[in-house]
Design a protein that fits this description.
By secondary structure, this protein is of the alpha/beta class. It has helices spanning about 5-10, 30-40, 50-65, 95-105, 125-135, 165-170, 180-200, 210-240, and strands spanning about 20-25, 45-50, 70-75, 90-95, 115-120, 135-145, 150-160. The termini are far apart.
């Protein structure tokens, strides 16, 4: 069974060989199907809010001979698994706002043994904050580019994390990143996007209080991101000089 590079990266991060695993937003079901073949002793759930993807996922499980090993359930987040204690939680295919809500509402499923593998498309700062509030530490972040899009994958487990600055909540901690060059590319893209947002806000009526506040927040994010990029440039220059 061949997965895309992104899905393979997510699947490879699963460390626990036993226990209950849930894949939220399972869509085509390829991740739980792959893991059912890799970990035959695991109890595995593929959850999705929509009914149609679950039919497709079940058909895929049939074709790979693991239909009796994966439980595909229609579920709003972790609702269908609230009575279970997970050792692995995977959430992909959604933004950070929704992912934050799922983690908050599904906290009863999480224990000190739970590993979390999360891939938010946006608003990653909300996910990082939620992990810390729930008592988890971010072990590593992985960045990759697939079909012209950048993806971030966060691996976390139970424990006290080191402090994060406001900018690190928004843009990640460099030393916890496996591919610093890819993170640098993503930060440069985010800087371009924030600059466009700031320019649009600058053209809005100045008497609008919400716009003024949003503009100030965006200016702060731009300054923080520029500072992070400057630090990274200095690190690269030092590395070149040593050579």
């Amino acid at each position: 069974m061949k997965l895309t590079r992104r899905l393979q990266q997510i699947a490879d991060l699963v460390k626990h060989p036993v226990g209950i695993l849930a894949d939220v937003g399972t869509d085509h079901g390829l991740i739980p199907i792959y893991l059912a073949k890799r970990f035959p002793e695991r109890e595995i759930y593929g959850l999705d809010l929509r009914e149609r993807p679950l039919f497709r996922a079940a058909a895929n499980a049939d074709s790979y001979g693991v239909r009796d090993r994966v439980h595909f359930l229609q579920s709003d987040g972790l609702t269908a698994c609230l009575d279970k204690k997970l050792t692995t939680l995977i959430i992909t295919g959604m933004g950070g706002i929704l992912m934050d809500m799922i983690l908050q509402n599904g906290a009863a499923c999480l224990t000190e043994q739970t590993e979390l593998i999360l891939s938010p498309h946006a608003d990653r700062h909300l996910v990082r904050r939620r992990l810390h509030r729930l008592g988890y530490r971010i072990r590593q972040e992985y960045y990759l580019k697939e079909a012209g899009k950048y993806y971030a994958i966060i691996y976390a487990d139970w424990g006290q994390d080191e402090p994060y600055s406001e900018s690190e909540y928004y843009f990640g901690k460099t030393e916890k990143t496996n591919d610093k060059e890819m993170l640098r590319e993503l930060r440069q893209l985010e800087l371009q996007e924030l600059t466009v947002i700031w320019q649009n806000l600058n053209d809005a009526p100045p008497e609008n209080g919400a716009v003024v506040q949003k503009k100030a927040e965006t200016e702060k994010q731009i300054a923080d991101l520029e500072a992070l990029l400057q630090i990274e440039e200095e690190r690269i220059d030092q590395k070149r000089r040593k050579k």
